[in-house]
Amino acid sequence: METQRTRNQEIAEIIGQQMGGLRRLHVFTGAHSFTAINNGLMFRIPGKGFAKDSINLVTVTLTPMDEYIMTFSRVRGGTVKEIRRYEGVYCDMLMDLFEEATGLYLSFNSRTSVVVPND
Prior knowledge:
Blueprint: H1 7-18, H2 22-29, E1 32-37, E2 40-44, E3 57-62, E4 68-76, E5 79-89, H3 94-102
Antiparallel strand pairs: 1-2, 2-3, 3-4, 4-5
């Protein structure tokens, strides 16, 4: 029996692809616990001292305007503290903003700088 994929799973898969693929995220950053959420993707990266500002939770959510909201947070002891949030993000900005916010790279090539929305 084939299982039907939900819209949230499809959105999460597309976001993963737009960020270079879930395998790339895992290999380059140690990302894990990839989870389809309502209109988005959430995943963890290794904890304290690994990413800039000890970010260890990343959430990417699709908006009705076909843009993304990227949230970078730190989770400690059940408390979630939002460190950075970008709104009005287009798909071609996802990788650059991830690198900017976390200090972790998703490729061996250096990228051009991106204009950061809401900064």
